[in-house]
Amino acid sequence: MTKPIHLFTHTTTPNPRKVIIIFEELGIPFEAEEMDVSALHTPAFEKHNPNGRVPCIHDPNTGITLWESGAIILYLIETYDTEYKLHAKNAPEKFLEYQWLMFQVSGQGPYFGQAAWFVNFHPEKIQSAKDRYINEIKRVTKVLDAALEGKEYLVDGRCSYADLSFLTWFGVAQSPSIDPSGGLAKELDGNANWKAWMDRLMARPAVKKAFEDKAKH
């Protein structure tokens, strides 16, 4: 029997939710430990992740401790998705999925996170910084919209971990915390291919459960 994987998480951050979606999609048992932000840069946690960030997992079934959401997703997929429900077995599709995950972790998450930082937390109000990162939200959305022309999913006509990895940061982009007026969310929804794809992904039962359980993790 598979023992639950231990997930170090923090409710308000999007990256742990990416991992929880994969847990739910594949039916992998897990237990979530909610971390206070103040505890992340302490020796007790840094022995698990020297970078002091969540998510971080410890898998008692294999003994591995792993951090960085993209690395964790690939580990879960390659270790537990033995029926290839969420990933391709062979090239070129296998590498196309890698490509989109790398775009998510390098081109979506950091830029969307900076948008949230400069809108909500930076002590100085710098309009040019806000504009730069909000424009990146728009640009990334258009990249995906173009890639989805005539397709339901990014690779091989089926949902994969690559598609699912984008969801949580788009949740941030569309939230009132970025644009209380709702104008940005409305503008993003004008990308018809992207909007249909997002609706398709958000309708998946495992995705719904991951977001509905947000307050518990």
List the SSEs and their pairings.
Elements: E1 5-9, H1 14-26, E2 30-34, H2 43-46, E3 56-58, E4 65-67, H3 69-80, H4 93-120, H5 127-147, H6 161-164, H7 167-173, H8 183-189, H9 192-202, H10 205-212
Parallel strand pairs: 1-2
Antiparallel strand pairs: 1-3, 3-4
Helix pairs in contact: 1-3, 1-7, 1-10, 4-5, 4-7, 5-9
Number of strand elements: 4
- Output the strand order for the largest sheet: 2-1-3-4
Instruction: Estimate the mean pLDDT confidence.
Output: 96
Q: How can the largest sheet be summarized?
A: 4 strands, mixed
How much of the sequence lies in strands comes to 5-15%
Rg result: 17 Å
Helix coverage percent of residues?
40-55%
Task: Quote the distance from N terminus to C terminus.
Answer: 23 Å
Short characterization:
With 217 residues, this protein is an alpha+beta fold.
Please give a structural write-up:
This protein is α+β, with helices and mostly antiparallel strands. Helices cover 53% and strands 7% of the residues. The chain has ten helices and four strands. It has a four-stranded mixed sheet with strand order 2-1-3-4, with helices on one face. A hairpin with a 6-residue loop joins strand 3 and strand 4. Helix 1 crosses helix 10, helix 4 runs parallel beside helix 7 and helix 5 crosses helix 9. The longest helix is centred in the middle third of the chain and has 28 residues. 32% of the residues are buried.
